[in-house]
């Protein structure tokens, strides 16, 4: 049994969609127990709407909620009885294997480091979402709060990302590339130029060189390494351009009667195709390199993404990702 | 009469599409003369296919071509008779008002600074393409080669971009924002945190604060300020995500008979709508802050984009953008 703590109070659609996703997860996937963390009465009221095996969902009370706009360091320190702090403490005390939250990114990143704690040898834990591509998915690492990263951090990101893609997503010998403004080795800013030769020397990854942003949606690499500012821009622009284009396509289809009839005919095929480009299918983003698993799902997650984020924890735990990361990074350290 | 020198040899479809675009420009817009720079015999052979007023297109011979993969500094120094060097010298000697090229970005950026020269007071000339948004277009400044920029550079970019959008695109009091990973003032990397207060103090721009990448396609600001590495990622990801999504939409529409019939009905409306999201409509990207105008068009430009890039030079020249930039930046300098 794998135990996943879920933040019932975080996210735009909490607690309703968080609870619904938890129920869906236990009803879909055997071998999972969920611990819903949040205001007991509210969570129980939601739970009473569903049918599920009672012993597979437990509620742990947390009286406080950290809001998205709260300064994260302060929030984690002061709100000891918030769903994020209580949930992360369950992971710390090994009462849960993982913690899934759609709440404040900042608080999750801070809490992950402060409460769950960095794994030995990890300099900075990166937030690594899966992004859809033409060919499947790629891991974008780092999209967290580690701005102004150093080359050694990026090398660790490359390694952790490789381990994740190989073991959780089952991509053999994943192609690792660094985001750059040209394909040539001599291009880039100071950080990329310093990191490039270090990645080239790295024997335990399949480094294929630079990747230009244009190639990311085409699936040009499996693990896309960058510092968090650039990662954040990529992740959010992906969403923004996608949303704008799709709304333009929809608008065009509704613009006159002829188009409306055409849209009815096209709709089923279009829906199926675009679903493959929908980030929510792939669950949340793991915060890698911690003494336990923390997964951040989109703030606007609905039940389906919550369910997928919970199920994702199974492969992570079963494959022993944390142990593999620890081994890899510390083996490296001994060589130095 | 405004004289625009055009690099007949640069770009994926040179010389054919470059020459076609030049002919279209003089046939569409009065008051323009074009100087086609390149291998005389090749250019004349292309020109002989078209009808146009002979005295409005002139050919200037240049025997060499700078390839995209050549190291730019070296290429500009050694290939004195290349179309880029010859064309830029025409601007330097005031024999042309502007130079338009679809050739090597690196060589154009280097040549602009070395041959045409920076305008007094300009620290770094930024490359500033227009990108399509839901509401129209925004100026993305800088997408050039100025990686690892300093806060003072970004402030100049904000000012130059404002002047451009106000006078060339006729957007009154353009909204200026800096690309950031959150909307709050305290967020961001070191560069953004240092630049933010400087932009706030700047009285001659309408600074509206941070913009997250997600809001860029929605048209959240008119002038989008960032350093070139981030700008390059934004520009190329815009193209990449757009291309991938549209190919997915097209694929879906061709997937079965029902969809194919629907696609026929939807096509006219869809085409018209998506055209508004097509970067080529807006011509090339000016390299701002030089002693003359240099415009970089996409490497894969066809006649239409070349034509628009040439026509764009008219407004730039007529509005005296260079003079306005010089005044603005030097007025500032005197205050210091």
TrEMBL record, chains A, B:
<dbReference type="GO" id="GO:0006633">
    <property type="term" value="P:fatty acid biosynthetic process"/>
</dbReference>
<dbReference type="InterPro" id="IPR012281">
    <property type="entry name" value="Phospholipid_synth_PlsX-like"/>
</dbReference>
<protein>
    <recommendedName>
        <fullName>Phosphate acyltransferase</fullName>
        <ecNumber>2.3.1.274</ecNumber>
    </recommendedName>
</protein>
<dbReference type="GO" id="GO:0008654">
    <property type="term" value="P:phospholipid biosynthetic process"/>
</dbReference>
<dbReference type="GO" id="GO:0005737">
    <property type="term" value="C:cytoplasm"/>
</dbReference>
<comment type="subunit">
    <text>Homodimer. Probably interacts with PlsY.</text>
</comment>
<keyword id="KW-0594">Phospholipid biosynthesis</keyword>
<comment type="similarity">
    <text>Belongs to the PlsX family.</text>
</comment>
<dbReference type="InterPro" id="IPR003664">
    <property type="entry name" value="FA_synthesis"/>
</dbReference>
<comment type="function">
    <text>Catalyzes the reversible formation of acyl-phosphate (acyl-PO(4)) from acyl-[acyl-carrier-protein] (acyl-ACP). This enzyme utilizes acyl-ACP as fatty acyl donor, but not acyl-CoA.</text>
</comment>
<keyword id="KW-0963">Cytoplasm</keyword>
<dbReference type="GO" id="GO:0043811">
    <property type="term" value="F:phosphate:acyl-[acyl carrier protein] acyltransferase activity"/>
</dbReference>
<keyword id="KW-1208">Phospholipid metabolism</keyword>
<dbReference type="Pfam" id="PF02504">
    <property type="entry name" value="FA_synthesis"/>
</dbReference>
<keyword id="KW-0443">Lipid metabolism</keyword>
<keyword id="KW-0444">Lipid biosynthesis</keyword>
<keyword id="KW-0808">Transferase</keyword>
<comment type="pathway">
    <text>Lipid metabolism; phospholipid metabolism.</text>
</comment>
<keyword id="KW-0012">Acyltransferase</keyword>
């Amino acid at each position: 049994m794998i135990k996943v703590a879920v933040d019932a109070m975080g996210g735009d659609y909490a607690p309703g969609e968080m609870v619904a996703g938890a129920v869906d997860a236990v009803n879909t996937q055997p071998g999972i127990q969920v611990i819903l963390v949040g205001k007991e009465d509210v969570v129980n009221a939601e739970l009473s709407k569903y049918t599920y095996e009672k012993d597979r969902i437990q509620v742990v009370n947390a009286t406080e909620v950290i809001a998205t706009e709260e300064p994260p360091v302060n929030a984690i320190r002061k709100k000891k009885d918030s769903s994020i702090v209580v949930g992360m403490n369950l992971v710390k005390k090994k009462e849960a294997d993982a913690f899934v939250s759609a709440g404040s990114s900042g608080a999750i990143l801070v809490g992950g480091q402060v409460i769950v704690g960095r794994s030995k040898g990890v300099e900075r834990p990166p937030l690594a979402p899966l992004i859809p591509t033409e060919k499947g998915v790629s891991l974008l690492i780092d999209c967290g709060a580690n701005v102004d990263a150093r080359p050694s951090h990026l090398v660790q990101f490359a390694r952790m990302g490789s381990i994740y893609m190989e073991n959780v997503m089952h991509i053999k010998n994943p192609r690792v590339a660094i985001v750059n403004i040209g394909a040539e080795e001599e291009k880039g800013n100071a950080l990329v130029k310093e990191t490039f030769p270090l990645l080239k020397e790295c024997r335990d990854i399949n480094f294929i060189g630079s990747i230009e942003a244009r190639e990311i949606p085409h699936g040009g690499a499996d693990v896309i390494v960058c510092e968090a500012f650039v990662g954040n821009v990529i992740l959010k622009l992906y969403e923004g351009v996608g949303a704008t284009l799709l709304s333009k396509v929809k608008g065009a289809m509704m613009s006159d009667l002829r188009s409306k009839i055409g849209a009815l005919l096209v709709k089923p095929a279009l829906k199926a195709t675009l679903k493959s480009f929908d980030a929510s299918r792939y669950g949340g983003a793991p915060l890698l390199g911690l003494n336990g698993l923390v997964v951040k799902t989109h703030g606007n997650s609905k039940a389906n993404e919550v369910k997928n984020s919970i199920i994702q924890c199974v492969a992570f735990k079963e494959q022993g990702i944390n142990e593999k990361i620890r081994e890899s990074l510390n083996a490296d350290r001994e060589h130095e």
